[in-house]
Design goal:
The protein is α+β, with helices and mostly antiparallel strands. Helices cover about 60% and strands about 10% of the residues.
């Protein structure tokens, strides 16, 4: 049933053309005396007229303007050679011209206007060929066909606007997804660079310590010396390979950095910088702070940093609160603000996608949304299993 209705919506003009052509022709042949006058032409002209008027609509997909225009012209010409119920005096031809008016309304503005003018001209010619014409013979057909044309035009414009809006929405969704993917890729690069610095620093310390211990060995400790020399050589090779691999993720010309990375121990310095930039921030710490693995420590710091940066950019005049809760198995972070702009990065940034990527790397969770009372809040949980205390 649904397929049949869909087919009918798609091919309604062709279906009606076939119906009118067949029924009109049968009626013209079966009722030769039902016509007001047949003296305008031979009987065969009357018999063929319904099919001739309807046939052009079968080609309306190939000729969007030419097919309905041909139907209108054919109906006009027919009024000069034959008349009767199946031609211009009956409803069949009226429906064909109404269908043509509807098809004209589906075209572009210029073609639609030309089609409507053609229908007006055809109506005027038909009336000129008739007797006892009153003003209503001009007005009412014009109003009828204009109604069909106008309804079609309104639906066509509305449909076009909807399609354009849907296309824009799809385009924006694609751009948003692409931007989120770029943000994730950039955050992964940033994580890789920072972890390189953390790991490289640790490996460097291990290599130096191994060398220091090797120099303290006695001459007879050859096996121990050989083992430590292997540790040193392996450490130096690891550092070299890390520089090469991570160098692919760095901006051109950037060199590896071995400066200490920030962490939760330096959170006060971060808040001081945010306050200096114009955003008042309060810090609340619950639980006993503990030493974190470098990667987790850096991830926690970046979450707070990114959430406060978004608040500075997008929240407008606001006040922010940072809550750090040290639990037995996880570290909970909450960064909230009461700004009118939210502070979620919706102004074009993709900070939340980067934070989510960073937190998920360590098996954590992050959520964000509107804050009760106004503003925006970001909450993150990072597992502490394996952290040394």
């Amino acid at each position: 049933m649904n397929r049949a209705l869909a087919w009918l919506r798609h091919y309604w003009a062709e279906a009606y053309a076939v119906f009118f052509g067949v029924v009109g022709t049968i009626d013209a042949i079966a009722n030769p005396y039902g016509y007001e006058s047949v003296d305008k032409g031979p009987d065969w002209a009357v018999w063929l007229t319904p099919a001739a008027v309807a046939a052009p609509l079968l080609l309306r997909r190939r000729f969007p303007f030419g097919a309905p225009a041909c139907a209108v012209v054919t109906a006009t010409v027919a009024s000069f050679v034959a008349t009767g119920e199946a031609v211009t005096d009956g409803l069949g031809a009226v429906f064909i011209i109404a269908a043509a008016a509807w098809l004209f309304g589906e075209l572009d503005t210029r073609s639609a206007g030309l089609g409507l003018l053609l229908i007006y001209a055809a109506g005027a010619l038909v009336n000129l060929n008739s007797t006892d014409v009153v003003w209503g013979d001009y007005l009412f057909p014009a109003l009828l066909f204009t109604l069909f044309w106008g309804a079609s035009r309104a639906l066509t414009v509305r449909g076009r606007n909807l399609r354009e809006a849907e296309a824009r929405a799809r385009h924006l969704a694609v751009e948003r997804d692409a931007e989120a993917e770029r943000a994730v890729a950039e955050e992964r690069q940033r994580i890789a660079r920072e972890l390189h610095d953390v790991i490289a620093h640790s490996v460097s310390v291990m290599t130096v310590q191994a060398g220091a211990v090797r120099r303290l060995l006695r001459p007879e400790q050859a096996k121990e010396r050989e083992a430590l020399e292997t540790v040193e050589a392996t450490g130096r090779e690891a550092l070299t390979e890390m520089r090469r691999l991570v160098g692919l993720l760095r901006e051109r010309g950037a060199m590896p950095e071995f400066s200490p990375q920030p962490g939760m121990a330096t959170i006060e310095s971060l808040l001081d910088g945010v306050r200096a930039a114009g955003l008042p921030v309060d810090l609340e710490v619950a639980g006993e702070p503990r030493e974190l693995p470098p990667g987790v420590d850096l991830a926690a710091y970046r979450v707070v940093q990114e959430a406060l940066t978004n608040a500075l950019k997008y929240a407008g005049p606001a006040h922010a609160w940072v809550t750090v809760t040290w639990g037995g198995s996880e570290l909970e972070l909450e960064v909230a603000n009461d700004g009118s702009g939210g502070g979620d990065g919706s102004g074009g940034g993709q900070g939340l996608a980067g934070m989510r990527e960073r937190v998920s790397l360590y098996g954590g969770e992050i959520e964000s949304g509107a804050r009760n009372g106004g503003g925006y809040v970001v909450r993150a949980r990072l597992p502490l299993e394996g952290a040394s205390g």
